[in-house]
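name: query_chain
kind: protein
chains: 1
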Amino acid sequence: MINNLFFPPLPIVQSCMGLPDGTGMFVQAARSKGVKLNPSEKTIRKLLINPETVGNSSRLKFRNFVSLMSPSLVDKLPNEDDLPDRLFMTWASIQWRGALIGIRSSIGGDFFPATFDYIESLLDRENLLFKKVVDQESAEAKIRYLLKNDIATMLSSELRGHPQCILEIIKGKSSVEIERALLSNSVWREFMTFSIVSLLMRIIAFAEHEWSRSFKKCIYEYPGQSYLSKLLPTLADSGNIHKPIRKILSRWRELHDFKSWEEMAESLPGASDISDKKRKLMGWCSGEHIPEHGVIEDWLIKLIPDAGDEERYLRYLHYSFFEVAAFMTRLMDYFLKSKEQCKPECLIDAFNTFNRHFAELDDASAKAEASGTNQLD
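structure:
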C-alpha cells in the first residue's frame, strides 16, 4: 500500500530542475558522446521502473554504457549484494541514492558536500522509518506509525489537525478500505503533498545554510540570513499566487534600477523587438514559460559586466538563486496541476516551511559549533 514516503520520485525533481528526466538523461548523454544507446531506451526505462524484470545481459550492457559515459562512476554503481536492505527501501530512495553516487563521482561533488551528506542522512532515516512501517501488522498500524514518527512531525508540524483526522478516517477499516479511503481523501493528499514539499524545502534550506556560511560576501550581511526566504510564494489579496520566479525578477528589476518591466525587457539578449521581449519577460514572470539555463547566463552577462572576480561571483550567485526560484516555481505548478489537488493556501504554507527549517538548522549549527560536534539533524 505504501511504496514511497516523503522523498518524491527523482524524475519529478529532475523535471522541476529543467533537466531531462527518466531515460532522457541517458539519451542526451549518448548523443553528446556520439555513441549508440545500449541497451535500448525501452530496456533502460524498465531498469529504472522495475529492474527485476530485466535480464543480466541487459544489466551488463547498461553498466558498460555507464562506464563509457563516466569511467569513474561505474565502480561506484551498487551490485545486488551491496543493498541487503533494498526490500526496505522505497523506489524513490534508490533513485536518490543513485543520483548521489553520480554527483559525488563528478565535479558536482565539489559543491555542497555537507548538503549531499545531509540528504543521505535523511534517506537513512526514511529507510529506517519505511522498514518499521512495513513491519507493522495491519494497514491501520502502518499509517498510525507513519503519522506519529518524528520525521512526519519535523516536516508537517504546521498541519496540527491532519494526523488525527486521518486516524479517524482509517479507524477499524480493512487494508482495502483504508487504501480506498486515503486515495479519495483530501486531508491525506494534503498531508503527503505538504510533507514532500517541506522535505525539499528543508534540503534547500540546508544548502543555502551551507552556502551562506561559506560565501558571506556580496549578499549575506549577517549570520543566519536567508536570501531565498524572500523568494517564497505568497498569496495576493486578489487570490493570485506570486511565484518565486516573479519575485526574483522583481528583485533584479529593483537592483538594476529598471523603472518598468518594458525597460527591463529591453535588456534581454537577442534581436527581438521590444514587444516580443516584453511578452517573453512577462511570460517568465507568470511562470508560464521558464527560460533555458543559457538564456539566463547570457542575460546576466549583460546585466553584470565582467569587470573582475567579485562581479563574476555576483553573477554566479544570481544565476544560482534564479535556478532555485525556477525549481520552486515548477514544483508549485506540478502540484497545482496534479491529481493531488492540494489547495493553493496549503501548498504555499508548505513552501514557507523553508523559514522554519532554515531557522532550526541555523540554531542547530550554532549549538553544534559551541559543543564542537559540527553535526546537524
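note: The longest helix spans residues 186-214.
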